């Protein structure tokens, strides 16, 4: 238990190519499990229609973001398509202290940064694969979110995202939404029992030892 961060919750990194279902899975898991939350990142990109400050993101100006970097407010940050995004240290530590588990719905680069951060002993990583390329393509088309050109681009990005599957601890094929969702929740429960994620275990073992002493002295 050397260098073990002292927190009660764990971090779950979920990655997949866009269209394989990670966002719907993560949203549904957070909705149904009050002990599992999202973190709200900080970004310099302007809000899109319908986005609310503090809900999807904390929206800030570039100067403010730079100041936050300087003040070491982030666990990790990255530039994506010309905008900056960062994961807030205070927020994550507060949630973990409250015993919450936190889901990160991120691409492989975001996942790598979280896995390599000082919180790495608390991280469990899950990669979601589509059952076939045909299904992935159909899902992207059916989202009606993107034009033909964007769907083609997403398919290209998907290939590169999938090439990182082996960096993850758990790999799931999303052929049945409810089954995959249940399995992710199961993984979280099981991972929390791992010795290196149970920071309160030494206290519990001391309690058992005290009870042993008491038992011996009474017998
Ligand atoms: P969007 O602007 O479409 O909401 O997100 C663009 C990209 O930024 C996505 O790939 C998303 O995973 C990534 N992103 C969102 N928040 C963070 C963050 O806190 N850190 C990193 N590294 N990437 C993020």
Would you mind describing this structure in some detail?
This protein is α/β, with parallel strands linked by helices and 219 residues long. It has a single domain, classed as P-loop containing nucleotide triphosphate hydrolases (Rossmann fold). Helix content is 43%, strand content 19%. The chain is built from eight helices and nine strands. It has helices at 22-32, 62-70, 89-97, 108-115, 133-142, 148-162, 177-191, 201-218; strands at 11-15, 36-38, 42-43, 58-59, 74-80, 83-88, 101-105, 123-129, 170-173. It has a five-stranded parallel β-sheet with strand order 2-7-1-8-9, sandwiched between helices. Strands 4-3-6-5 form a four-stranded mixed β-sheet, sandwiched between helices. Strand 5 and strand 6 form a beta hairpin. The longest helix has 18 residues, at 201-218. The structure holds guanosine-5'-monophosphate (5GP). Guanosine-5'-monophosphate (5GP) binds next to strand 5, strand 6 and helix 4. Guanosine-5'-monophosphate (5GP) is lined by residues 41, 45, 76, 78, 80, 85-87, 106-107, 110, 113.
């Amino acid at each position: 238990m050397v260098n073990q961060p002292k927190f009660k919750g764990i971090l779950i990194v979920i990655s997949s190519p866009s269209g394989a279902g990670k966002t719907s899975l993560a949203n549904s898991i957070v909705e149904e499990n009050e002990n599992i939350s999202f973190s709200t990142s900080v970004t310099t990109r302007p809000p899109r229609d319908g986005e609310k400050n503090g809900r999807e993101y904390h929206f800030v100006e570039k100067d403010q973001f730079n100041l936050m970097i300087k003040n070491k407010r982030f666990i990790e940050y990255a530039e994506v398509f010309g905008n900056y995004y960062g994961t807030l240290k205070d927020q994550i530590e507060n949630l973990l202290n409250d015993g919450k588990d936190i889901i990160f719905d991120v691409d492989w680069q975001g996942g790598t940064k979280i896995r390599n951060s000082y919180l790495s002993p608390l991280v469990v990583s899950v990669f979601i694969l589509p059952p076939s390329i045909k299904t992935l393509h159909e899902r992207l088309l059916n989202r009606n979110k993107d034009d033909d050109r964007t769907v083609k681009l997403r398919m290209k990005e998907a290939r590169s995202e999938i090439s990182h599957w082996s960096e993850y601890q758990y790999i799931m094929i999303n052929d049945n939404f409810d089954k995959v969702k249940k399995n992710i929740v199961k993984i979280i429960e099981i991972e929390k029992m791992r010795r290196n994620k149970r920071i309160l275990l030494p206290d519990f073992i001391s309690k058992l030892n005290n009870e042993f002493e008491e038992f011996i002295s009474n017998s």
